[in-house]
Amino acid sequence: MKTLLIMRHAKSSWKYPERSDYERPLNKRGKRDAPRMGEHLHRTDLVPDRILTSSAKRARKTASRVAKSCGYKRKVKKIEALYDTVPGVYFETLQALPDKYQIVMAIGHNPTMEQLVNLLTGHRERMPTAAIAHIQLPIQRWEALDVHTKGTLVNLWTPKTLFSD
Q: So what's the pLDDT on residue 18?
């Protein structure tokens, strides 16, 4: 079995209208929520073996904060193709992973994150900013992952459901 953690980037700022969508930074809430979600992964023994992220600024910053707070020791892999894309690109990216990775986290954008959860589990779930879907996949090798793979949605965490403030 493989474990996939699908995360939507943390809350971003609209404070700088002159910046492109790609360059939007995290806002105060996003800067707070991303490390808290990483701490939750650490507490639940779900530290990823590999973190993949969209190359957009808000996703990169989310990934670095989650990585640091969960105890991830590798370099986060930034992938341009994961920005403004479709679920098929995530499937291709995951299929190319070495099988030594048991727990993989993919950080990206909606609506793609919600579509991925639905395709892999059959559940239509809302993915607010900084949400993480924990999915168990019935595969031994990443290359076996495809649209017919039916995983189990073990949990869906959001900052709102985990933290009371």
A: 87
Handedness of CA 125, 130, 135, 141 (dihedral sign): positive
Are 48 and 107 in contact, with CB atoms under 8 Å apart?
Answer: no
- Total domains in the fold of the chain: 1
CATH code for the domain in which residue 104 is found = 3.40.50.1240
**61 vs 31, 54, 58, 83, 96, CA distance in Å?**
8, 10, 5, 14, 24
DSSP per residue, 32-85: HHHHHHHHHHHHTT---SEEEEESSHHHHHHHHHHHHHHT--S--EEEGGGSS-
Question: Residue 14 — very low, low, confident or very high, per pLDDT cuts 50/70/90?
Answer: confident
